[in-house]
Design brief:
binds ligand MGD; 7-stranded mixed β-sheet; single chain; alpha/beta; binds molybdenum atom; 27 helices; about 775 residues; globular; binds iron/sulfur cluster
């Protein structure tokens, strides 16, 4: 019987799940017959997304059916890629990774973790096991081309690098969005479906006002009440000037937030008057004043920033100032302002307990002396660590759901570096721009072949909900889910390393029994435990309770309790394997009580459309993880950057050959680098173009449709020009995630819509001074016509 016959006989059925492509978590309804997907629509009964989806949802089908998608481990041979059995792949990976670390030291293995990891709970839960098995300090991720400054600001202010303020978009009356384009991106750190509608609704509320501040007149600007063009990289000046207005008008008020050192701020912002910063920022002094005064006086107001204020020269300062502006205007932790989440699996609560998550500058990178954050080094220096000889040089890499050749600055340099590795293992579903350098690629199951729970994104959503999506299709026989591959490889590495050490407490039997235990528990078992322990699980609010205990000023001997707990935790965690992810969340499992009711995986499984838990609620000061339950506003770690800005106020900018500033751009039909193999999503008008203001085009005698060359310190790319009025003069914009013409990649659709990679011309030497974060917005470039 062939497939067609099977399909004809099968009933037409409906499957419900959450789309896990971007951060919006839309509910989808998939109609299918046998193995055949008939349609993908919005799930009208999803209590949060209510039927909304964007065009990318169809990619769930395209990814599943894509003939280029890898379904088996692939080994690079002299005659090209060869599919090999799974077990053989696990053995080979463990063997090579162990031998590199034996020959050159554990730091000779590097690991880079990409964005889709956050959309795959199994990977999140089992990554720590893999990291521990590798034992390397050379860890990198998309964090340092994305939200790292937000983590640092949250750590400094709230004592927890995983506790993020999120705009309460459903109840705010005045929202200022600086350097974010949620209408295209679906909303980041303000996650939830149909953000365009949610934002539009702000304008309908009393005194409702949506303000966008962006060098480009974006899709979000189109629906805003007002838009102001800003010079890239000058946001910190704007924020300091707003702060200056607030203090000079004596409008500061911090509501229920207990703060320290607010007077330091008053001093600090004195030089930054609206009049002084206006010319550099590009916004009139009266507008700056008005925004500041309204933020301080209007109820239900918030100011929010995203990539435009993050991956830029003053990313850390901007992110900190944004949070502080909300604090001193009484808009933090109040309805309609910036609030904190308490998701069903309390990732922020866990973050507060983790020493590693809350660590900054505990190590320095070998070549460029850049600081670590949350146990990772900045990705902008990954290529250096591979290319520069000496002790600790990276000789083997592991990538997990990442495409750094297209996403990290100076991708060309990284490419050269990857080509020199002795071994590279990529967990990915494609042979793409990065994974083509692999020795071995191990694919995940398709997005429709595994279950899904939004472990990470719920942390940064503007409304609490929970949804469990079962797999739609069985995974192919003999294949492994990604978490299983992680587990298989980490157990094998652990065994090999133990043989080398001979002295370890762990022997093969314990490693094997742990592995069996983890298989028995599975990703679902862990989710179930975490849900039961979470805030809606009717458990003793374990994580929450610990967090409170640890930061309670009234409790005598807190340090003793802390030491006791961490010592015990460490005893569990020292065992170095995948069990860690689980143990970290229930280290006190033996003291826990029977679960009486509340949220559990079984309950969620019965709610196929998901459950709406409700809006964010005020949680301070309890939710604070600072030891004394106050927010210290002293910006000691930022003083250098503030001084640098102050100096810039006095001197005018020097002329440079690179006379334009390059910024990024997102489009609703792309997602970073990896949806361009879906024909439905890439067809139509070319999207990988250079956007330039008509006056800049005229000055260079350039016309719409011309092929132009963009040059920077690091390289050049060619792209078609799109002349526009919707961008600030002096600024050009190019989307990232393109450049699929690289030989060796096997993306049959994407290569026909190749575009060019902006990260061939972003500069790995240009990093934020404090963290080493990549500066991808505001890169100096020049543009010429190609003859
Ligand atoms: N110039 C510039 N650069 C940027 C940005 C910018 O705005 N401008 N944005 C930055 C940001 S915010 C980010 S997050 C990074 C993203 O950087 P990365 O995470 O490195 O890149 P992605 O394009 O998201 O690549 C994801 C990879 O994961 C694979 N993949 C997808 N799903 C799965 C899965 O379930 N399992 C596995 N194993 N693989 C999977 C895809 O095939 C793809 O190879 O890019 C950054 N780079
Ligand atoms: N469709 C789609 N959705 C996505 C993604 C995608 O690639 N495509 N990627 C996902 C990921 S990984 C992330 S992190 C989020 C990102 O989500 P967003 O941050 O909302 O997305 P961006 O479009 O990068 O928005 C950044 C904005 O900052 C502006 N900008 C650039 N430089 C500056 C500056 O110096 N100052 C100011 N004020 N503005 C500046 C840009 O013009 C742009 O409009 O989106 C996620 N969702
Ligand atoms: S907005 Fe994001 S989550 Fe919703 S359908 Fe589109 S890609 Fe999926
Ligand atoms: Mo991102």
């Amino acid at each position: 019987m062939d497939m067609q016959q099977v399909n004809e006989q099968a009933d037409v059925k409906k499957h419900y799940r959450a789309c896990n492509i971007c951060d919006a978590m839309c509910g989808v309804e998939i109609e299918y017959q046998g193995e055949q997907i008939l349609s993908i629509r919005g799930d009208k009964n999803d209590p949060v997304s209510k039927g909304y989806i964007c065009p990318k949802a169809t990619a769930l089908q395209d990814l599943h059916e894509d003939p280029d998608r890898l379904r088996q481990p692939m080994l690079k041979t002299e005659n090209g890629w060869k599919a090999i059995p799974w077990e053989e792949a696990f053995e080979l990976a463990a063997e090579k990774l162990t031998s590199v670390s034996k020959n050159y030291g554990k730091n000779a293995v590097g690991i880079y973790v990409g964005n889709p990891t956050a959309h795959n709970h199994g990977n999140v839960l089992f990554l720590k096991g893999l990291n521990d098995a590798l034992g390397t300090h050379n860890r990198y991720s998309a964090t340092s081309v994305d939200q790292l400054p937000l983590m640092l600001a949250a750590m400094k202010l709230f004592g927890n690098a995983a506790l993020f303020p999120i705009p309460d978009v459903e109840r705010t009356h005045f929202l200022i969005i600086v350097g974010g384009n949620p209408v295209a991106s679906g909303g980041s750190f303000m996650c939830g479906a149909d953000i365009k509608k949610k934002l539009s609704e702000i304008k309908k509320r009393a005194h409702g006002r949506l303000v966008v501040i962006d060098p480009r007149f974006t899709e979000t600007a189109e629906i805003a009440s007002e838009h102001y063009y800003i010079t890239p990289g000058k946001d910190a000046l704007l924020f300091l000037a707003m702060m200056q207005v607030i203090f000079s008008e004596a409008l500061e008020h911090t509501g229920n937030i207990p703060v320290e050192n607010i007077n330091v701020l008053k001093e600090l912002c004195l030089p930054f008057t609206p009049g002084k910063v206006s010319a550099q920022v590009g916004i009139k002094p009266e507008v700056i004043r008005d925004l500041a005064i309204n933020l301080a006086t209007q109820e239900h107001a918030a100011i929010y920033g995203r990539l435009g204020t993050s991956i830029q020269e003053y990313g850390s300062l901007c992110s900190w100032l944004l949070y502080v502006l909300n604090i001193i205007t009484g808009n933090l932790d109040v309805e309609g302002g910036m609030m904190f989440t308490k998701p069903a699996i309390d990732v922020a609560g866990l973050g507060g307990l983790s020493e590693e998550v809350n660590s900054f500058d505990t190590r320095r990178s070998r070549v460029r002396n850049l600081p670590s954050m949350a146990g990772e080094f900045p990705s902008a220096t990954l290529a250096d660590e591979i290319l520069t000889e000496g002790e600790g040089q990276i000789k083997a890499m592991v990538t997990c759901a990442g495409n750094p050749v297209l996403s990290v600055p100076n991708g060309r340099k990284l490419e050269k570096a990857l080509a020199e590795l002795e071994f590279m293992l990529c967990f990915d579903m494609y042979v793409n721009e990065t994974t083509q350098y692999a020795t071995l690629i191990i694919p995940p199951t398709s997005p429709l072949e595994h279950c899904h729970y939004d472990l990470v994104i719920q942390l940064v959503a503007f409304r609490h909900s929970a949804k469990f999506s079962p797999p739609l299709f069985e995974k192919p026989e003999g294949s492994y889910h990604e978490w299983q591959s992680y587990l298989e490889i980490s157990s094998r590495i652990n065994k090999r390393k133990n043989k080398l050490k001979k002295t370890s407490r762990l022997n093969d039997v314990t490693i094997d029994s742990f592995k069996s235990y983890m298989y028995w528990l599975g990703d679902e078992g862990i989710l179930n435990l975490l849900l039961k322990m979470g805030p809606y699980g009717k458990k003793p609010l374990l994580i929450d309770g610990l967090n409170r205990l640890l930061s309670s000023p009234k409790l005598p001997g807190v340090n003793k309790v802390w030491n006791f707990l961490t010592e015990n935790l460490e005893n569990f965690l020292r065992s170095k394997h995948a069990m860690n992810a689980f143990l970290e969340t229930s280290p006190y499992g033996k003291y826990s009580f029977p679960v009486l009711g509340g949220l559990s995986l079984d309950k969620l499984k019965n709610e196929v459309h998901g459950v709406d838990i409700g809006p964010m609620v005020s949680m301070f000061p309890e939710r604070l993880n600072t030891r004394n339950k106050t927010v210290n506003l002293n910006p000691d770690y930022l003083l250098k950057d503030i001084q640098r800005l102050k100096n810039q106020l006095e001197v005018s900018a020097t002329q440079s050959d690179f006379d334009l500033l390059l910024i990024g751009r997102r489009h609703i039909r792309s997602n970073n680098s990896w949806l361009h193999n879906s024909y439905r999503l890439v067809k139509g008008k070319d999207r990988c173009t250079v956007l330039m203001h008509s006056s800049d085009a005229q000055n260079r005698n350039l016309h719409d449709g011309d092929i132009v060359m963009i040059q920077s310190r690091t390289g050049e790319i060619r792209l078609p020009l799109e002349v526009s009025e919707a961008i600030k003069p002096g600024v050009i914009s190019v989307p990232h995630g393109w450049g699929h013409h690289r030989e060796g990649a096997q993306l049959s659709v994407a290569e026909k819509f190749a575009g060019a990679s902006i990260n061939d011309i972003t500069d790995d030497a240009l990093v934020e001074s404090l963290t080493g974060l990549a500066i991808a917005n505001g890169v100096p470039v020049q543009v010429h016509k190609v003859h």
